Amino acid sequence: MLDENQKKLLFALARQSIETSLKLRSQIDSFEDEFLKEPAAVFVTLRIDDELRGCIGSVQAVESLQDAIVHNANSAAFRDPRFRALTEEEYPLIDLEISVLSPFQRVQNPDEVVPGVHGLMITRGYHRGLLLPQVAIEYNWDRETFLGYTCEKAGLPFDAWRDPNTTIEVFTAEVFSEKNKK
Hints:
Elements: H1 4-21, E1 41-48, E2 51-57, H2 65-78, E3 94-101, E4 105-107, E5 119-124, E6 127-131, H3 133-139, H4 143-153, E7 167-171, E8 173-177
Antiparallel strand pairs: 1-2, 1-3, 3-8, 4-7, 5-6, 5-7
Helix pairs in contact: 1-2
C-alpha cells in the first residue's frame, strides 16, 4: 500500500511528464525515493469532467514505478488512439487516476471473477482486452457483463469468455485519484 505522500509524488511525476511534453516545464524532477525504483505495472487515466480523456498502461512490471508513471502518463495524454492529443488548454481541466496493478492470475472458472475487486484480461489467439477493476464499479456491471465487455475490448464476441480456448486472467489494483484529493 502506498501512503499519501507516495501517491502525491506519483501524481507530481505524472503531471510533470505531461507538462514537459506540453513545454510547460523543461524537465522532470529527479526523485530518489526507493519505492520508485521497484518494478510495477501501472495504468494512468485522464478524465475531464468525469469523462475519459485517455488511459494507457503496462500489464507487466518491466520498468520501475517511476518510469512506468512517466511513460504511461505521457502516452495517456498524447498517444491514446481513441483521443486526439491533450492540448495546453485542456491540461488544467484533467483529473489523474493511477492504478498500480498486482500480478495477473489465470482463473479456470469464470465464477472466480469478482467485479469491482478484480480487473480482467481476456486473451484468445492474437486478441487481448483489459479492463481495470474500477470499470465494473463505474458501470455497475455484474460478472457476465464485465466478462462480456472485456471480450469486446479484445475484439472478440461478447460471450467468448465461455469458450475453453479463451484465457481469463484477474488482477487487483491500488487505485487512487486526484479528484478524491480536491
